[in-house]
Amino acid sequence: MSEVTGQGERVIVDHLADSLARWLGDRDGTRHAPPWEPRQYVVLGVLPATISPPAPATTDPDGGGAGPQESPEQTIEASAVEVLGADDTALPAMALTFLVATTENRIKLAVELDFALYVEEYPTVQEQRDYVGHLATATEASQVSDESSDSESGPAGRVPPSSGSADAESAAAAHRHRRQTNVGGAWRRLNIHVDDFLLDLHTTEEHITVDAPIAECVRAAVTGHFSGEMAARPFRTRTRTISLDDLASEDQYRHALQEREDPAFEPLYPNLKVTGFVQRIGGGYLVSVSFTNATFLPRRQFQDLSAYDCRMRVYPQSPAALLSQRFELAPRDYRYMDDVSLICGQGNACVAEPLPGGGVGTTTLPRFYQHAVLHRADHVPPLAWDDLAADPDPVLDGVESAMQMYLDEWDAFLRGVRDDVRPESMREREAFASEVERFQLGREAMRGDPRLAQAFRMANAVFGETNAAKGYDQWRLFQLVYIVSQLPALAAREHRDVAEFVREVEFADVLWIPTGGGKTEAYLGLLVIALFYDRLRGKTRGVTAWLKFPLRMLSVQQLARVLRVLVTAERHRAAVMPGSGAPFELGYLVGSSNTPNQLRYPAGEWWPGFAVAKDSPAGLLDERRLVAECPYCGEDRVGLDVDADAVRIKHVCRACGKTLPIYMSDEEVYRYLPSVLVGTVDKLTGFAFFGEFTQFTHGARWPGVRRSHVSMLSSDSELL
Ligand SMILES: [Zn+2]
């Protein structure tokens, strides 16, 4: 675990994440020509202004409209006061909560803010021309005719509907209706940095708010913008249009814009504030600091009053100091004793991250680095398949003594461990001790039953052979320990009198390891041992294992892998123990829509029904195969043939001519009871509905007589 790997990956991921943050936060943004709007493109750390339109008028059930009514303005004022007075949590905010230690009854925090305001400028005449071109291609309807922009009727003036009756009149109208165009907005990003100001908090839960230093910066930025020539202002008219003719020259364009501006316009300033309070908790103080956009408006304004890409940094001032907090969901045990479970604080609408200099800051695009888990291999002999196939004892002795040594180390650790960590660490120690015992019990089972020991050795030979081409030659440690620990449950089938073995059957084990860690190999190893053990102990046919997957996709993906191992295992069985029973085969038991699970019926597009299928030209059904790659020759040329006499759908390799040991319909699975079933987990409910399922657990009534299997499906007698 000590070796640091993946540095290259980390550099790439950091670079991509940085680029993503710059893009989502528009951090490199300066000025954006139309069409562009901050509320569409800037999505990190946005604290919007709150727009609350008046509530819809309530209808009087008595039908009387008389009596004094609140004006809309009064309603708005009331709701604004209500929201602002009630609780700041109703307003957009990002907050940090962290633990502080101090010897005084007040806590001083230095706070630093960064955010962006977006202000609108007029496009240059060229930008506006480009924008008109863009609109024309985007939609034909973007160029509007609007008389009212030239009229004196004021902002509320509406365009009178054009009569379009008499020819003379429409000609005159056409003259008046000069072609108009919407004026686009060019948005400029103003990066605002509010240098550290102090938040002086009492330890009495009193809320302290600071807004003056922020307001000063905001006012300077917004005023600076509106003192510029190109600052866009609202028009006197409802629409924001000028004549296309005005785009003839820069002067004419500027003149047209200025002519339309509303002289009464006064800029607004977003109301941003920082609020903090302290709660006593245990031996320290829990401090909350929030950055809030308290701008509250009855209707959308000309300006965008949201704060974008907001970031806050907070530094407790001496003697106050930031304390690490424990992540409370992490168990209190040896694994999470130190920095692994410590956090610098919690974020609301952001994630808290530690800062150099003892501070805590917000981030709105957090990153988490998942460490790759590497298996220790320095304390055990190589777990090579060939060695285990020849003589497992030296390897298993090595594993057992390494486990014992680890247990001793653990005991030494527990003698000196902190009190808060001891109970959970003790429990974990006991769990590991029972793993050691189960491993020892697995070895005992092999010593007590030579058939199990032989099955174990043969399975290792199968894995050595199956994986040789891929360059693997050994188990991972957890795989081998898992397999050996499960052997008592297999031995219990033959040794009902050994209580320790029988007790193992009472438990279901959960093997947890991250994706790609090798779970599948582990249970396939156990499966192959069970297959050999069954034949060695006289179970000549029938189901040994049923692999259940949550998704059909997973079950199909695993088929080829299982089949490869199974084919190798069958070759070993036939060579080492001929006459031991039926060959190892695979059954795909997955249900109605996924395979022709009932051979008789047409089942949608997937399967035309047996009657149609058996008369289909050869190769026509090939694409409905479950496995593409031949487990015998490795060629990707597996196809489907229908065997009308046997009432079977066969996977056949077109390259080597071999028939793959796979049954793809439920009815074939019932008839042949292949040794391994693969399917989705929901098929387990079949035990409640289909009598045929009983065969999986109890075998056929007349073992060894294949046709009698079919005759058991009494309702399906036409299959005969
Ligand atoms: Zn083949």
Descriptive terms for the model:
binds zinc ion, flat, disordered C terminus, single chain, 720 residues, alpha+beta, 20 helices
Radius of gyration equals 38 Å
Q: Which distinct ligands sit in these coordinates?
A: zinc ion
Computed structural class: alpha+beta
Count of helical regions? 20
Helical content stands at 25-40%
Shape: flat
Number of strands: 24
| Low-confidence segments | 60-86, 140-165, 704-720
Detailed description of the structure:
The protein has 720 residues and is α+β, with helices and mostly antiparallel strands. Among the domains are: 134 residues; 169 residues, no CATH class. Helices cover 35% and strands 19% of the residues. It is built from 20 helices and 24 strands. The protein has a six-stranded antiparallel sheet with strand order 1-6-4-12-18-17. Strands 3, 7, 9, 10, 13 and 16 form a six-stranded antiparallel sheet that branches. The chain has a four-stranded parallel sheet with strand order 19-24-20-23. The structure holds zinc ion.
Helix and strand topology:
Blueprint: H1 7-24, E1 31-32, H2 38-41, E2 50-51, H3 72-86, E3 93-101, E4 106-121, H4 125-138, H5 167-176, E5 180-182, E6 186-202, E7 208-210, H6 212-226, E8 241-243, H7 250-260, E9 272-281, E10 284-293, E11 296-297, E12 308-316, E13 321-323, E14 325-326, E15 342-343, E16 346-348, E17 351-355, E18 359-363, H8 385-390, H9 393-415, H10 422-448, H11 450-468, H12 477-491, H13 499-504, H14 519-536, E19 545-549, H15 552-576, E20 586-589, H16 610-614, E21 638-643, E22 648-653, E23 662-663, H17 666-672, E24 676-680, H18 686-689, H19 694-698, H20 706-712
Parallel strand pairs: 2-11, 19-24, 20-23, 20-24
Antiparallel strand pairs: 1-6, 3-10, 3-13, 3-16, 4-6, 4-12, 5-8, 7-9, 9-10, 12-18, 14-15, 17-18, 21-22
Helix pairs in contact: 9-10, 10-11, 10-12, 11-14, 11-15, 12-14
Zinc ion is lined by residues 630, 632-633, 635, 653, 655-656, 658.
